[in-house]
What we know:
The protein is mainly alpha-helical. It has a single domain, classed as Up-down Bundle (Four Helix Bundle (Hemerythrin (Met), subunit A)), CATH 1.20.120. 65% of the residues lie in helices and 0% in strands.
Amino acid sequence: MDNKEEIRQRIEDEILKTEMQVTEYRELCKPDEPDCAIGRVSRMDAINNRSVTEASLRKAEEKLNTLNIVLAKIDDDDFGKCLRCGNEIPLGRILIRPESMHCVNCDRRI
């Protein structure tokens, strides 16, 4: 696959962005101080928001892990090929979603 330097840069940029998201989500997931006086409804709202943030954190950590795997494999001969069907993943897809390891058709089936 050509354009490996462009792809490498895109992956590295996405890793940095995702690392910042992970840090932000971890900060938001910290528990409230017990002496923080908020009402029952506000506390329920905070619990719900934390649950959503924790789900976002898990997703961002998973994406970061996948990006690091993809970056480590960028020099492999089969880089840019779908893990499922073996067809080339279009450059546009790799640049938009550098963590993609499947073509669009196979990704829909997963």
